[in-house]
Amino acid sequence: MNLLSCSSNHCPLSSGFVATIDSPLKSSLSIPHLGWGQRRDNVRNKRRLSKIVAYHGLKNPPYKLDALEPYMSQKTLEVHWGAHHRGYVEALNKQLEKNDILYGHTMDELIRVTYNNGNPLPEFNNAAQVWNHDFFWESMQPGGGDMPTLSLLQQIEKDFASFTNFKEKFIEAALTSFGSGWVWLVLKREKKCLAIVKTSNAMNPLLWNDIPIISLDVWEHAYYLDYKNDRAKYVNTYMDHLVSWNAAAARMARAQAFVNLGEPKIPVA
Ligand SMILES: [Fe+2]
């Protein structure tokens, strides 16, 4: 068994994966006393038995687990990232062991493939939740909150009339999400504007071709340890102290490679 590692930690759209290639070809080629025909048949038979499986890794948040204190506790990160997020990764890897055809996809490709045009494969929920959580950790930063930088602020004011109105709409969306799910600020490719969308369970805006800019996890596991059932306090704290407008500005800058918003370009903070 050989282990090949392929790290893509720099890419927010995919987590690193390790490909395990279970191939007995090397040992079969070294058998000296077989004739060429026998060896060829042996290799063919072994090749049919070879198995290639993709394993995805658990990415670390881009800060220490206590870095968001006191607004999001280390205990919450230990449970939310260290148990829930890890659980999605491990469950996905177990599923992928049984499904060679899903080998080699990045995580965002895997979400689209396993969504299967609205008839999701068993792997979809775990794949989407891995992506969603990676994106969520990178949507926050120590010392976050406050206001976006100038150009992003101008785009928000253009599409929501004011930053205050955007903030109210985002909070309202989070508080009116029924059950478990996510709230997103996305860039609409066709309409060329920012919008707030809500998704249930593991659903992800990539599925209808939106470009995510920031996200908020409104599953109860995201806030219960710190805020019990007070989702409003959690959501307001996220907007005031946690959301990373630096990450949002960087994502907007990348998004403008695909969506022409006109000048000026939004600079990376
Ligand atoms: Fe979560």
Automatic annotation (TrEMBL):
Enzyme class at the top of the EC tree: oxidoreductase
Top-level taxonomic group: Eukaryota
UniProt cofactor(s): Fe cation
Molecular function via GO: metal ion binding; superoxide dismutase activity
Transmembrane regions: none
E.C. code: 1.15.1.1
Gene3D superfamilies for the chain: Fe,Mn superoxide dismutase (SOD) domain, Iron/manganese superoxide dismutase, C-terminal domain
One GO term describing the cellular component: chloroplast nucleoid
Stored InterPro entries: Mn/Fe_SOD, Mn/Fe_SOD_BS, Mn/Fe_SOD_C, Mn/Fe_SOD_N, Mn/Fe_SOD_N_sf, SOD_C_sf
PROSITE patterns referenced in this protein's UniProt entry, alphabetically: SOD_MN
Compartments reported by the entry: Plastid, Chloroplast
Record keywords, A-Z: Chloroplast, Iron, Metal-binding, Oxidoreductase, Plastid, Transit peptide
Keyword DNA repair in record: no
Stretches assigned to the Manganese/iron superoxide dismutase C-terminal domain: 150-250
Chain ranges of the Manganese/iron superoxide dismutase N-terminal domain: 56-140
Family under the similarity heading: Belongs to the iron/manganese superoxide dismutase family.
Name of the protein this chain belongs to: superoxide dismutase
The organism of origin for this protein: Buddleja alternifolia
